[in-house]
Amino acid sequence: MTNSLLILPGDGIGPEVMAEVRKIIDWFEDKRGIAFEVSEDLVGGCAYDKHGTPLHDDTMAKAQEVDAVLLGAVGGPKYDNLDFSVKPERGLLRLRKEMDLFANLRPAQCFDALADFSSLKKDVVAGLDIMIVRELTSGVYFGEPRGIIEEGNERVGINTQRYTESEIERVCRAAFDLAMKRGKKLCSMEKANVMESGVLWREVATRVGQDYPEVELSHMYADAGAMQLTRWPKQFDVIVTDNLFGDLLSDLAAMLTGSLGMLPSASLGAPMANGRPKALYEPVHGSAPDIAGQGKANPSACILSFAMALRYSFDKGEEATRLEKAVEAVLAKGLRTADLLNVEGATPVSTSEMGDAVIEALNESL
Ligand code: NAD
After folding, report:
1. Which atom of ligand 1 lies closest to the CA of 71?
2. By CB distance 3.0 to 4.6 Å, which of 166, 272, 275, 311 could disulfide with 320?
3. Terminal Cα-to-Cα distance of the chain (whole angstroms)
4. What residues line ligand 1, using a CB cutoff of 6 Å?
5. Is 175 helix (H, G, I), strand (E, B) or coil?
6. pTM
7. How far is the CA of 56 from the centre of ligand 1 (A)?
8. What is the pLDDT of residues 171-229, one digit of tens each?
9. What domains sit in the chain, N to C, each tagged with a CATH number?
């Protein structure tokens, strides 16, 4: 099977971090014999500069055809005053919407070398490796009715939490599939104690679980989940939750582990004809205009996003682990981009030196 990949570096530090991923893709082709069909295109501000739109229709069509899309970052001060409809972020939103990416995967993984960066005690986070699956296309951010209405002599703000059984089922299935590839433990979080949508969520999650007898399923109220995530996060493997709770819990979990420059993500949709899910991989960070063009960006988040693509789109779990371990090895050697520098004895490196060090660690892994 071919492995087609559309690369969208975007704006700001996007092209800088993506250049390091290109080196890594070349390495996997040369040294591991994995053939990729790579194409590259524009998204965000750079697409607006060329086409007057943050995502050209041709780029959108390409994204629908490939096995995986890898995006750098979009946005920047130059585009702040553009009309909302052509802002760089609209390009990203269009990709997510038209590819119908309903499952957002946010790992929270703490490499030992960075355990001191967490605001929590080292033994609470060292070795942490959990995955939050957030429903991304429904729930209270989309439900109708919504708006601000007049009622008597005051205004009322309204949003509606709404989930169909099939929406709950498909994201739970994605989470169970993930749990099967990981530690076979899934915790579903909602507020079934006070929300009917939570009652339905729990019922559907339990029903889907019957198809996955090997996965240990538990349920937790989302507020208790937030407490447990800060008290002892290592009790979790995969967590599945709705759009709103997932928004909060995935940010909370991500920050257990330190820097924005280390955080990858994936958004998955329905399986395509070849059985692979529609997929968009991207670092959690933005275009970081404050450091763009200075060789200061940490490429790890983008590199780790590519590792997720290896695992979830290209079915190369072992190679994904090899890449993650290479990043870990580089950190263990004390090499640090500027965002991770405030540790005694660390060796400062630029974006490209960090990428080269990962390649060296990959060579050492052979
Ligand atoms: P940001 O993530 O770009 O930057 C926040 C801070 O983290 C900055 O100080 C930055 O220097 C630092 N940082 C981020 N990534 C880093 C990396 N890889 N290495 C080292 N340091 C890093 O968020 P922001 O400043 O709020 O937004 C800047 C622009 O990015 C805005 O236009 C915003 O709309 C856009 N944005 C895009 C995305 C995306 O493309 N997915 C996400 C968030 C923000």
Report:
1. 40
2. 311
3. 24
4. 13, 17, 73-76, 89, 92, 260-261, 282, 285-291, 297-298, 301, 337, 339
5. helix
6. 0.93
7. 23
8. 999 999 999 989 999 999 999 999 999 999 999 999 999 999 999 999 999 999 999 99
9. 1-102+263-366 (3.40.718.10), 129-256 (3.40.718.10)
